[in-house]
Amino acid sequence: MADFLLNALLAGLALALVAGPLGSFVVWRRMAYFGDTLSHAALLGVALGLMLDVSPTLAVTVGCVLLAVLLVTLQQRQPLASDTLLGILAHSTLSLGLVALSFMSEVRIDLMGYLFGDLLAVSPTDLAWILGGSALVLLVLIPMWRPLLAITVHEELARVEGLPVAAIRLALMLLIAIVIAVAMKIVGVLLITSLLIIPAAAAQRHARSPEQMALGASLLGLVAVCAGLALSWYKDTPAGPSIVVSAASLFLLSFTLPRRA
């Protein structure tokens, strides 16, 4: 297997593995718009990274984490509805990123790669960031699984039981921010949320427990990555969108199978 294809496969599989359980929480807590906001802000992180001459992946990671903290803070203090606030930040950060990039005429930028992903161009350095970020998220997510489930089922009851609900909610948002930052290279800022949501939504129909749904979402994500890469390799289609199309096909296929009682 060619090195660039092996890098792409390993990066895609690592992301799919961690996107499954996180995507399950995104579906359960109806946080799709939050994911969209962070993914749109990733482009602003790219622009800042190029302006400051630091790694775009590092800049996007830091930017997404800071935006997650800002969102939590504003949601607690502003009278605006959450979806209104998210809509303002999503489009403002995306537009600001595009404007900032337009001023850097001396820098050659593959804007389509950032918007829609360029999985086959993943370098060993990119792969290290993706593997490291995915491993970090899994290591944090495993001990937090039960508390996250508790606040997802009933926040007030979890608060009565003494769980730090606000801190757990913020931790979940930070984990999503890290995954979105490292996934940018694979599916692009405009398609990241799809990879989080679609496998989880497909697995939800046939799962009998939260753990089954998380595992099923990860497995469907792994299949989507392999199928999308195969489609890209043999038909010369863009890798990121091909993965999302494969995930969407699995979602539609899930409706043809009988639902488990």
Quickly count the helices. Answer: 11
Order of helices and strands: HHHHHHHHHHH
Relevant CATH superfamily = ABC transporter involved in vitamin B12 uptake, BtuC
- Radius of gyration, CA atoms, in whole angstroms: 18 Å
Estimate the helix proportion, in percent: over 70%
Second CATH tier, the architecture:
Orthogonal Bundle
Which sheet architecture does the biggest sheet show? none
Structural class of the secondary structure composition?
Answer: mainly alpha
Overall number of strands:
0
Give the N-terminus to C-terminus distance in angstroms: 42 Å
Taken from the alpha-carbon principal axes, the silhouette is: globular
Q: What are the low-pLDDT stretches, counting only 5+ consecutive residues below 50?
A: none
Whole-number tally of structural domains: 1
What is the CATH third-level topology name? ABC transporter involved in vitamin B12 uptake, BtuC
CATH C-level:
Mainly Alpha
State which percent range the strand residues make up. Answer: under 5%
Mean pLDDT: 86
Architecture blueprint of SSEs:
Elements lengths: L2 H26 L3 H21 L3 H22 L4 H21 L8 H6 L7 H30 L1 H6 L4 H23 L4 H13 L5 H26 L3 H16 L7
